[in-house]
Amino acid sequence: MKSSLNHLISWLPCIIFLMVASNHFILTKTQNLSPWLGGGFGMFASTDDGSARFVKATSIDVKGIETVIPLKKRYKHLKHKVRALPNSNHLNALAQSIITHLQKETDKKALPQISSLRIDVWKTQYAAGSLRPKQIHIAQESFTIDHKQ
Description:
Helix content: 40-55%
Number of helices: 3
Distance between the termini: 65 Å
Structural class: alpha+beta
Strand order of the largest sheet: 2-1-3-4
Oligomer: single chain
Strand content: 25-35%
């Protein structure tokens, strides 16, 4: 009994490693997790780290005019999360932060009311041979702003 328990314990690091590696593989293929994160198993085989990803937030006012929102220091932490793993939770958190700030600015400066917000995420891929960079769109989410408060 004791030897079978010791045998099982000796395999535990391998089992944990396989679970982490499997989770990393699944998230990189289904949720656009940067291969450099979540275990870093792709960091030597990929240039797709967070710095090679671009996040763009665009507000649309009630007249349909689009304005790109600069994602400065205020959004740095949330932008980093979206670049690493652009899933619904991270996109929603960034959107809520931007919407809250935009609504305060709109009230202060009498700007046109914002009706929606769109967040896009791209990653950079390099062509084999020429190494020419190409932007690949990996995520987009739109948020309708409710002004009934």
